[in-house]
Design goal:
Blueprint lengths: L7 E4 L2 H12 L2 E7 L5 E8 L2 E7 L5 H4 L4 H4 L5 E5 L3 H10 L3 E8 L5 E6 L5 E5 L10
Parallel strand pairs: 1-4, 5-8
Antiparallel strand pairs: 2-3, 3-4, 6-7, 7-8
């Protein structure tokens, strides 16, 4: 089954972010709509059955006016958790790409392996092999 909850992110430089997300985490471009110059008006990236949407900051509309880059505010209001088969491989990839590791890869208390990091503009990411749909004792 494909993801039915899809995070939407905004970046100061979405083109650079897409390149980095591909290198660091292994995302693939599903759809990309370019604007003038280097602007990315809309993009959809996938990692296995997971999808994120992103664009360059500064788009029109009330929804888009709410976005800010964590890099300019030194704060975040959300983190993205992605369930993957091999978080160790993504951990190694992200380290090599220069991700700022927040929590090192480790066994998670409820099963699986997990790590957290920041991307190039400060968005928080967690990758885990833990199944959050599984309740303790199942």
């Amino acid at each position: 089954m494909n993801s039915t909850t899809i995070p939407c992110l905004r970046y100061q430089n979405a083109k650079k972010a897409i390149e980095w997300l591909q290198e660091a985490f292994g995302f693939q471009v599903f759809l990309q709509v370019r604007g003038e110059g280097e602007r990315i008006e809309h993009a959809r990236l996938t990692l296995g059955p997971n999808m994120i949407m992103l664009a360059t900051l500064g788009r029109e509309g009330d929804f888009d006016k709410k976005f800010a880059s964590p890099a300019t505010h030194n704060a975040v209001t959300q983190a993205i958790l992605i369930v993957v088969e091999d978080p160790d491989a993504i951990y190694q990839r992200s380290r090599a790409a220069g991700a700022k590791i927040i929590d090192e890869i480790a066994d998670f208390e409820f099963g699986g392996r997990t790590f957290t990091c920041e991307d190039i503009e400060g968005h928080l990411w967690a990758f885990t092999s833990h199944d959050p749909w599984k309740k303790a004792g199942d």
